[in-house]
Amino acid sequence: MARRSDGWIFLAVMILSAAIACGGGEEGDDDDDGPAFDADAFQTDVDNDYFPLIPSTDKTFEGTSGANGIEIRTSVLPDTENVAGVECTVLQADRYVNEKRVEVSFHWFAQQIESGGVYQFGRRAEQYENGTSVGFEGTWKVGEDAAAPVLVFPGDPELNDIFYGVGTPPTSGENAKIVVTDGVYSTTVGDFTETIEVEETGEETVTKIYAPGEGLVGERYEDGGLALITIQ
89: part of which helix (H) or strand (E)? Predict the structure, then answer.
């Protein structure tokens, strides 16, 4: 985890993260007196410019982590799923290491109508070894393991905004921060401008790159990274 030299800054970050988890607003909202979770405040369609989830969209990412080859295939499923009274868009992600599938996860998302912020309502993850299921680490769901969804991408993203990383359980203490708002990033798919870089801190630091109209286009790790190679 990235080192924090100022304990007061760390405390402020944790207080803010807790407020996001229990509220329903984005960073800077003043109304903390409302209900912890209002299902009517969300819509199924996720059309945030930097985090669009269009049904039947498939992406493939390839790269490395240390000495290992990594591939992630994502699909926005055509069918929605109801989580805690909200019809959520479902994103499936299949992760491969050295051409072997090691995890399949399903992520539930909905968009706050007023702010345009994208919230995650949970994640079901299943890990595999040699084709055999070995566990469900990182699984959580609103209504079972969490009282409210968590903000994973703001509707009006600005430099230094702090929220949650995708898939992060609300009790983890991890966070994500916008560190670049006008970047440039290139893959075999194309050249992207006005990109936003989000630094997620946890067991390791991961930087995710989002492009307007496309969403996630790449990731950087301490020992490697991923880039978008196909989208359809």
Answer: strand 86-97
Single-letter amino acid, residue 208: K
Report the alpha-carbon distance of residue 128 to residue 193 in Å, rounded: 37
The number of residues in the chain equals 232
Residue 98 has pLDDT above 60, yes or no: yes
* CB burial readout 158-189, b (16+ within 10 A) else e: eeebbbbbbbbbbebebbbbbeeeeeebebeb
The residue behind tokens 């991408």 is 153
- Average pLDDT estimate for 187-210: 95
Exposed / middle / buried, residue 9 (Cβ in 10 Å: 0-12, 13-18, 19+) = exposed
Three-state DSSP class for 65? strand
Distance between CA atoms of residues 181 and 71, nearest Å: 26
Q: Where along the chain do its domains lie?
A: 7-24+42-231
**CATH code of domain 7-24+42-231:** 2.40.360
pLDDT of res. 94: 98
Q: How do residues 210-224 score in pLDDT, each as one tens digit?
A: 999 999 999 999 999
**46 Cβ contact partners less than 8 Å away, ≥ 6 residues apart:** 52, 53, 89, 109, 110, 111, 118
- What does the alpha-carbon distance between residue 175 and residue 198 come to, in Å, rounded to a whole number? 10
Check pLDDT > 70 for residue 118: yes
> Is the four-CA dihedral 131, 90, 88, 187 of positive or negative sign?
positive
Q: Are 169 and 140 in contact (CB under 8 A)?
A: yes
The answer on pLDDT for 150 being more than 70 is yes
